[in-house]
Write a structure and sequence with these properties.
With 404 residues, this protein is α/β, with parallel strands linked by helices. It contains 13 helices and 14 strands. The chain has two domains: 81 residues, no CATH class; 263 residues, 3-Layer(aba) Sandwich (Rossmann fold), CATH 3.40.50.1820.
């Protein structure tokens, strides 16, 4: 019922966008007449209509060039390998000097991996960057099987093996957990491709520490409540028909509800930018919400297992995590240097939750550890924006290079 209702809402939003385009075109001839002010209001309203609804296709990364040294170098997106659920995407640069290979683990949490384009752009001048480019679960046929917590770990291991020895991990938010798990699995197996370093940024390693509203929601209901109320079945109009998912529109709705006033104000501001002709300011708001409202569905197995493992049972925090039925021990991590990064004002992953990884990886000597608390930033400021680029990233770059 939930997915059918949302499909109907999507159809309505498509019609609204079409009417917005028609009304905006109708206002255009009046923009140079004595009725210009009225036309601006008319056009602003029409343009707001044109932005109705969500999108379900991955936006472009839009990284065509990057400055390396003192020259502009073209960047080419290259699909290195792929599974039904993800592509290992490389941002290839044609340069002669070898650079550290860095695998960016993007969260599988309702948004496409393009949410990290700013992170990737900052990393690119100094690193050979790869990313886990997740596919929308509603577009994955049911015949391709399930995707759970262990499958994410499998993807990390497989992608690191594909990249080869000497690679580095950088996990943003949720996959800090899978980064630790995959590294421990590879350490136990003495896998030669285990990463040289692992940077965990604003990740929920131990959610018992200073619980946020997100953490409290996860513990306020039994797991059966999440299965009953938040999961839905993909309808017949999509390639993944019959697959159980946690819909991306549910995740985004929850994030918006957390900061409803801020999002409402942003759209009011956007309307006035249109009216006043502030094109640059309008584009900044549009760019943010173009990305924010591009959503993907999560496989139901992955969502439920993550809620249970990370947010309810605290399995990783207790060092009781298992993989394919076998226990794994974070103390087996001895060859992978560890850096953790947190944001002072993070209201999603509180200060201390990521730093807890150091207690788990107790076999690492002091010279293979680092921690940074970035002042003045919330969750997204840990991996994007001015402070990330000018204050946090130089520390991350030096950490990776020192263990390369």
């Amino acid at each position: 019922m939930m997915y059918r209702a949302f499909d109907a809402q999507t159809d309505l939003a498509r019609q609204t966008r079409g009417w917005g385009q028609f009304l905006n075109a109708a206002a255009s001839p009046w923009s140079g007449t004595p009725f210009r002010e009225q036309a601006n209001w008319w056009s602003a309203g029409a343009r707001m209509m044109m932005r109705s609804g969500l999108t379900f296709a991955r936006p472009d990364y839009g990284i065509g060039t990057v400055t390396v040294g003192n020259r502009e170098v073209p960047v080419v997106e290259e699909a290195v390998t792929a599974t039904p659920f993800a592509t290992l995407l490389r941002f290839r640069k044609d340069i002669e000097t070898p650079q550290p290979k860095v695998l960016v683990l993007a969260p599988l949490s309702g948004h496409f991996s393009t949410l990290l384009r700013g992170t990737v752009r900052t990393l690119l001048p100094d690193n050979d960057v790869y990313i886990t480019d997740w596919h929308n679960a509603r577009d994955v046929p049911l015949a391709d099987g399930a995707f759970g917590f262990d499958d994410y770990v499998d993807h990390v291991v497989r992608f690191l093996e594909t990249m080869g020895e000497g690679s580095h991990l950088l996990a943003v938010c949720q996959p800090a957990v899978q980064a630790l798990a995959a590294t421990a699995v590879m350490a136990h197996a003495k896998n030669p491709a285990q990463p040289r370093s692992m940077t965990l940024m604003a990740g929920p390693v131990d959610c018992r520490i200073s619980p946020t509203s997100v953490n409290e929601l996860a513990t306020s209901k039994p797991i059966a409540w999440f299965e009953k109320n938040l999961l839905s079945t993909v309808t017949a109009r999509h390639k993944g028909a019959g697959r159980r998912v946690y819909p991306g529109f549910m995740q985004v709705s929850a994030f918006i509800a957390m900061n409803a006033q801020r999002h409402s104000q942003a759209h009011q501001d956007l309307f006035w930018h249109y009216v006043r002709g502030d094109a640059d300011k309008a584009r900044a708001v549009e760019s943010f919400y173009d990305e924010y409202f591009a959503v993907l569905d999560l496989p139901a197995e992955f969502y439920i297992e993550t809620v249970r493992t990370v947010f309810q049972d605290y399995t990783l925090a207790k060092n009781e995590l298992s993989y394919r039925g076998n226990p794994i021990d974070m103390r087996e991590i001895r060859r992978t240097a560890l850096m953790t990064v947190e944001g002072e004002r993070d209201d999603i992953c509180a200060v201390g939750q990521t730093m807890a990884a150091h207690d788990l990886c107790s076999s690492l000597p002091p010279h293979m550890r680092s921690h940074h608390l970035q002042a003045g930033v919330g969750h997204y400021g840990v991996f994007s924006g001015r402070r990330w680029e000018t204050q946090t990233y130089p520390l991350v770059r030096n950490f990776i290079q020192s263990h390369a």
